[in-house]
Amino acid sequence: MADVEKMKPRIMDVLNGYLRAIEVSDLEDSLALMRIRGHLLRRIEIVVGEGLVRDVLVMEFVLN
Asked: Where along the chain do its domains lie?
């Protein structure tokens, strides 16, 4: 957990870049959250390495 915590700024950067690229139309599908969660997990694994993070919990989703 400490190793992943050290990588948090890099993780946030990668996730913010991905989330900025999502279009509103991408969110209209009923499976959108599940698909986005998968994309987020894959990007986190690329940063920290595979097997260190098992899942992503989305607590809040805000559209501007």
From this structure: 2-48
